[in-house]
Predict the structure.
Amino acid sequence: MVEATNDLVEVTAGDFEAAVIEESFRRPVLVDFWADWCSPCQMLMPVLAKLVDEYAGKFRLAKVNSDEQQGLASQFGVRSLPTVMCFRNGKPVDQFMGVQPESAIRAIIDKYLERPSDRIREQALARLEAGDVAGAVENLRAAVATDPEHHDLKIDLARALVQAGDAQGAEQQLNLLPMDVHEQDAVKQLRARLVFAKNANGTDLATLEQAVRDHADDPEALERLAAAYMVAGRSQEAMDLYLKLMQRHRSYNDNAGQKGLLAAFEVLGPRHELVGQYRRRMVSLLY
């Protein structure tokens, strides 16, 4: 057994909260679920111990004897040994099972290490939350310039640019991402938001609402207002307008009403309370 240090600790149910959950707010914590009888566990341990020494405090390795701590193993759904979970900011964010190459383990650790640009990102997201969109964009551009391989920064910048009304700039940022990152839900949702931002074309809500009042059955006015509502976060009002487009102008702009609803579902996500309701209403209009 490798000697325990502050960076390599034996963990039980009694100290898991402090040793893993609380510590994961400061640095990544790898939790190694193992057992004495498990040969692959014994093979993996020297690799993990080597990385602990090499990273010199940048992450913690917490070892859980699954035979002695069956409650913990059950709580985290451990079905085979070894199972190694990475905890960050209070929750499991990654895992692997079995013996893995050192390079693969290193990639997981590196993914969750704090980077200098993370502090700038935190400031930017705080400004975005406070409504200072221009300030957030400025911070995120600076962060991307200092850490161009940090792909989450580009996603955050694209999201801020959408809020700032710069759909073209947002699309440029998303186009810089590697192909595998394009499959992430956050990127798919942003792509869908860009459809709305382009349709709204930067026109303010009051102008678009007046256009619909003046021309209540104009499909272009309905589509642009629905898009603007989605950009503004007024999703239910937007989907009501897209349903109206489907009912009255099915052929307009290659069935823009249905396409708008599908994009809205993508933005909101499948678990949103409105998605099931409006999906059923959309289907009832189709058949």
The chain has a mean pLDDT of 93. The CA atoms of residues 85 and 95 lie 4 Å apart. The radius of gyration is 25 Å.
